[in-house]
Amino acid sequence: MQLNEFVQLKMSVSPENQSFRAVDIARLALDSANVGVWILDARSREFLPSDRTKALFGFLPEEKMSLEDALVKVADRHRKTVISAVEQAIKTHSNIYIECPVILPPEKKQRWLSITGGFSATDVSNDYFSGIVLDITEQKQNDLRRSKFIGMVSHELKTPLTALKAYIQMLNNWAKKQKDNFTIGALSKVEKQVKKMLQMINSLLNLSGAEAGKINLTKREFDMGDLITEVIEETMFITSSHNITVLPGASVSVNADRDKIEQVIVNLLSNAAKYSGKDDPIEVSCTKHEHTLTVSIHDHGMGISANDIEKLFLPHYRAESKEMEKITGFGIGLYLCSEIIKRHGGKIWVESEPGLGSTFKFTLPIN
């Protein structure tokens, strides 16, 4: 069956009058909402976009537009990710949600699009992948303005906190000379809270940089096993109630930005502790596969639903559930992790089921 025939069949399955009326109502609703519609034959890759979809990608209604034509318009640094996501969704018959910029000629103007799709439950052959396209340029511009504001405020907050940390260290040294154990203990707790605040501010600063496309990497050789051990020791100092273990694995040297990879591991470990019970174990592993290193962090916590997994690495996204309401957070940690790993040429993903825990994994190229 050809794709056009499939569309006509979908439009005529119900009684004639009701069918045309339903189609007209659907078209009116989509037109008024400026929503583009598309259908893709998963086997032949024949692509059928609506006029609005063509317009969003910079094509005229009378022009032909294939899937390849659409992908060419995607900005260079996002194209590989979009292609990979589409191929993976088709291969696994899963849903897709992508936010990406497209470059429109002749001024090379940038427009941000949200692309959502999946396979129809009513399609017996399961060959047709369909979805919608929305223009989210204004939303992205607002996000960028907010990020700039956050970055400015965060930078101003960081200065007095850095000074406060220095004074705490001076007082701590004085208390040690006086052998004042009470003051030493109190200052240790204060220093821990200041450190948490600085970590939060650094995350906000990194967010503003990531959304502006400015994550700078300073790469050097280091041992991933040593870094994981250091991060676990630091995490145990803050979250001593969890049992974090490192599974046996090879010691692997990698060329990457050590500080930013440390930030990724700290965030994933903190999330594992945050979303699991106090006595639940957390396992960390590091494995080597030819030219790729894989770090895995597994917890036995509340788990994540399939719907939330699709959007988990988007900025400011947090899963909505009764359990989540009790847990604080900005919803930016995983987004930053994703951007850092992408800048290194790696991948990050999660395997999870509600109630059965989660396993976050990321890869880095070794050579």
Q: Strand order across the biggest sheet?
A: 2-1-5-4-3
In DSSP terms, counting alpha (H) and pi (I) runs of 4 or more, how many helices?
A: 12
Mean pLDDT comes to 79
The CATH top-level class label of the largest domain: Alpha Beta
Structural class label: alpha+beta
How far from one another are the termini? 47 Å
Number of domains: 3
CATH homologous superfamily assignment of the largest domain: Histidine kinase-like ATPase, C-terminal domain
By CATH, the topology of the largest domain is Heat Shock Protein 90
Q: Based on DSSP secondary structure assignment, what is the total number of beta strands?
A: 12
Identify low-pLDDT runs: 5-23
- What does the overall shape look like? globular
The assigned CATH architecture of the largest domain is 2-Layer Sandwich
Order of helices and strands: HHEEHHHEEEHHEHEEHEEHHHEE
- Fraction of residues in helices? 40-55%
Q: Beta-strand level of the residues, as a percent range?
A: 15-25%
Alpha carbon gyration radius? 25 Å
For the report, how would you describe the main beta sheet?
A: 5 strands, antiparallel
